[in-house]
């Protein structure tokens, strides 16, 4: 199992454990709610979201605290109004209450006005009153039949009417439609404790879906590479398995260097031929760049272009197998202060320059399509045992038909110092094969001057950028 696959699996396992633990916690809450259940007089099995005065806080909402007085269930709201609870149906999510001042049947007005919304719609989340009454006192008669006159409260100076309204059932039906009869109070508990559900069930599920989508996209990228490799297998170099790569590099014992896309190791085939294996870091080297490298170098056979002998592609494990260049890259030989190789004579510099130019010219004109390298620099010019230069590293390369004078790219490509101006801004012109010629020109300046194109430690600022100093 690769490190990426192991990471995804461990994350999936973590989400699964979160779900199991959250389910256990909900079961515990369910048991706690059942333990908080109580009865008072004719009202039986009262439970969440209601709580009995003196019960623990987890038994219900503080605003829905009930008391039991003389076998009568009392609901007392924050406006000091007291109501007898006549019935509570947890299955239907309904509650029936009566003002204590009207419960004796005498003619009188309620003690306090009562609003549905601050309590039953906001706090109970689904428990509704079926009807409500508005009392009005008028000096004249009301003809509207919706208002019923209350004779015992009316006299010659005023007329008291009551208007009975009905709460819409849409809100209640939404909740009741989600109930299962066999689940009873347990489902009522789930419906009203939305924050618990959101935190411990919905959040892990959403996170899990996100991981699955990400994993599917990763598989899709791998599938695209595999599809390309399958379609082009007739002309491609040899494909190695990852265990074979481990074997030929002797478990990656001899490291040659570190590049922008991964590490390079020295290896040896069973025939005795020395090779260089570039292990690609998946986060830095995309599937498109891998395809570019294989498809570009795989079909090229030129003395001044590095030869790709094989490749490996197994999930996130990708590698490129090149011919071994014993004398390393050009930058080791042309910068004296950094050099670990031998310095070149002017004749040898001339030979290297011509060989590099031939390799670039072949890329532009020697193949069926024009191949733009986009990263010509000394580090990407390798030298064999006879110091013959070979252009390498085609991760940023792009094909375009020879009949097209210009090429379209979506983003700047290359290394700072070697990037042609038109790659940064189209105001300088169109991108073409001349963009590679610009990079080669900078390499020639560095070969002639024996220094890098940019030196931040220069004694004079005017000499910091070598091409600018040469131009002056």
From TrEMBL:
It catalyses: L-seryl-[protein] + ATP = O-phospho-L-seryl-[protein] + ADP + H(+); L-threonyl-[protein] + ATP = O-phospho-L-threonyl-[protein] + ADP + H(+). This is non-specific serine/threonine protein kinase. It comes from Citrus clementina (Clementine). The keyword Hydrolase does not apply. Its EC number is 2.7.11.1. PANTHER family: RUST RESISTANCE KINASE LR10-RELATED (PTHR27009). It holds the Pfam family GUB_WAK_bind. GO terms for molecular function: ATP binding; polysaccharide binding; protein serine/threonine kinase activity.
